[in-house]
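Backbone Fold Data
Goal — fold tokens
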Amino acid sequence: MEARLPLFSGEVGPKVLRHINSASKTVTDSALPAATQELVKLRASQINGCGFCTDMHSKEAAAAGETSLRLNLVAAWRDATVFTEAERAALEVTEQGTRIADGAGGVTDEAWREAAKHYDEEQLTALVSLIALINAYNRVNVIVRNPAGDYQPGQFG
């Protein structure tokens, strides 16, 4: 299986991805916990059916010390006891923020209030930015059909 388009060649692809990566680095360096960031990226990627990002973020999370139990339960986080209340709040905002097109009306006030109990304004800004960025990555990869399975942790630095 090959991608429809070589995103890393030409003029436009590398420039656009460099800007998205720069924004992503800002979030990575924020006070939003790294484990939460990986869970958010993994869950949004699962929802969007992005095999490439699901592969990448499950492997990156495992390489960073995340347990296989938690990684395997991200898709069923509501029924799992292995996530903190803060992580559950972040996953709820992630799902609602990712499923905007499903007619759900975006993130509810209740979900936002719960997240605000666990994260300060800078962390919430990082969370919102992360959700937007991973959804952008997901869409790019799904549209060009980037294949999954070959990603190696740290591959993109």
